[in-house]
Amino acid sequence: MNHCARTLQTLLPTLHPTKNSVVARINRNATPLLLSSRGIRLQSQNRAFASMAVADIISIADRLDIDQHASMKPTPLCASVLDRSIQPEEAAHFIKSEFPIRCAERIRMIECLPYQDEDELLEVHKRHIQSFLTMRRIASNDLEYNEKEFISVVSEILSYDEDTILLMMKGLHQLSKERPDEMNAQYVNSFLDAFLLNRLGTEVMLKQYLAYVGIRGNVFERSCNIMAVTRDTAQAVQRLCVRKTGVRPKITLEAASVLKDDKEGVPIFSCIPGAISFVLQEILKNSCHATAMSEGATDYNEIAKRPISVIISADEKHVKIRVSDRAGGIPFEVGKNVWSYLYTTANTNVQDATELAGFGVGLPLSRLYTQYMGGSMNLVSLPGYGTQAYVFLPRDTISQCEVVPDLDHEWHVQEPIGEFIL
Ligand SMILES: Nc1ncnc2c1ncn2[C@@H]1O[C@H](COP(=O)(O)OP(=O)(O)OP(=O)(O)O)[C@@H](O)[C@H]1O
Ligand SMILES: [Mg+2]
């Protein structure tokens, strides 16, 4: 029996009929989960939680529907499918059955947190339930495919989800402060890795539908010019840095490839440009922020001596991007903490974090994105000198399939492709 089916059994006696609906108090005695990045274990700790339960007013039928979908196995998307020109109706048909499974899974993940009593987490939970019910209604009412209506549902769901990460981070930072033993970094990191990887796959699926109906560009591109993506991203980050700090760090770009066909060394390969841009943006934001905060940064000549360098290199099978700065590096004792969603040295508290720095999500989320693309990410710090970030991507992305975390099944991010650290 799956976890939420078990939760449901414990919940049924607590259902309270009200005038028009039924109040389902969920997760009163939920079983906490131990999530690990390489798989998920259920840990039974028969104890009642003192925390306020996530409470929602939904009908019993909807509650059962969510739990039933949460127990179903998601179907991973493969790049070879995204690459095909698919009729919007076919894509909509897939989304109508697949979205509820993934969304219900994320609802369950929130409900399985040992504590949810933060407004932000309750808000994310509520929005997920809303999205689930919206999609289920259109799936059951709309036997004929109504493109206009479906586009508006997909757009609405994407907009509900826009600030999910921000809300989750505010809620989880607060919970980890209040309950440091249970909501410790390891627990929060494993939870977010699973939750956000599931969310990323859903986002790709919905955005690709909007591409099929011509509302936006393809999420997956067969011939992506990585230099153009990097240049646009670097310019956007520079503008952000000037706006936030008044300092404009210099960013240099170079490309080199062993393949003669890669003109001027720039590899053209299949990838998800939006995801690569996100990763580079987070790395460059960190480098720009650290450069702008370093000593003498207000002096133009000093900044000119510390350019941020981006090198794209490629062979037949891989693309590797190195971003290096001369902004003083990260102290050795920080170690793997940089990969924690709860670690940041930005001079802000989480309530007023800026777009440039402040939540601690940039690096762990970027690493998750590279893993989603079948790649990997590493950092090398030279304390007192600077930091180098390495992003490693497979060049043949067409053969890649995503991993969709699901509490009922072991899930594994792909083994990182060879990192070639000599
Ligand atoms: N290039 C760098 N130079 C110096 N320190 C860095 C660099 N990159 C990361 N760090 C350190 O690692 C921490 C975590 O980085 P991360 O990008 O995950 O979060 P953040 O930048 O603090 O906030 P966010 O990215 O969510 O806005 C930073 O706060 C900083 O202390
Ligand atoms: Mg950052």
What does this structure look like?
Belongs to the PDK/BCKDK protein kinase family. It is a single chain. By secondary structure, the chain is an alpha+beta fold. The chain has 2 domains: 3-212, Butyryl-CoA Dehydrogenase, subunit A, domain 3; 221-399, Heat Shock Protein 90 (2-Layer Sandwich). Helix content is 44%, strand content 15%. The chain is built from 12 helices and 12 strands. A 5-stranded mixed sheet has the order 7-9-10-12-11, covered by helices on one side. Strands 1-2-5 form a 3-stranded antiparallel sheet, with no helix packed on it. It is globular, with a radius of gyration of 23 Å. Mean pLDDT is 82; it is low at 1-56.
Attribute tags:
422 residues; alpha+beta; Butyryl-CoA Dehydrogenase, subunit A, domain 3; Heat Shock Protein 90; 2 domains; 12 helices; 15% strand; globular; binds adenosine-5'-triphosphate; binds magnesium ion
Distance between the termini: 47 Å
Could you spell the SSE succession in H and E letters? HEEEEEHHHHHHHEHEEHHEEHEE
CATH class of the largest domain: Mainly Alpha
Bound molecules: adenosine-5'-triphosphate, magnesium ion
CATH-scheme architecture of the largest domain: Up-down Bundle
How much of the sequence is in beta strands? 5-15%
- Number of H- or I-type helical stretches: 12
Question: What about the largest sheet?
Answer: 5 strands, mixed
CATH superfamily of the largest domain: Alpha-ketoacid/pyruvate dehydrogenase kinase, N-terminal domain
Looking at the structure, the CATH topology of the largest domain is Butyryl-CoA Dehydrogenase, subunit A, domain 3
Mean pLDDT: 82
The share of residues in helices is 40-55%
Low-confidence stretches: 1-56
Order of strands across the main sheet: 7-9-10-12-11
Radius of gyration from the CA trace? 23 Å
Number of domains: 2
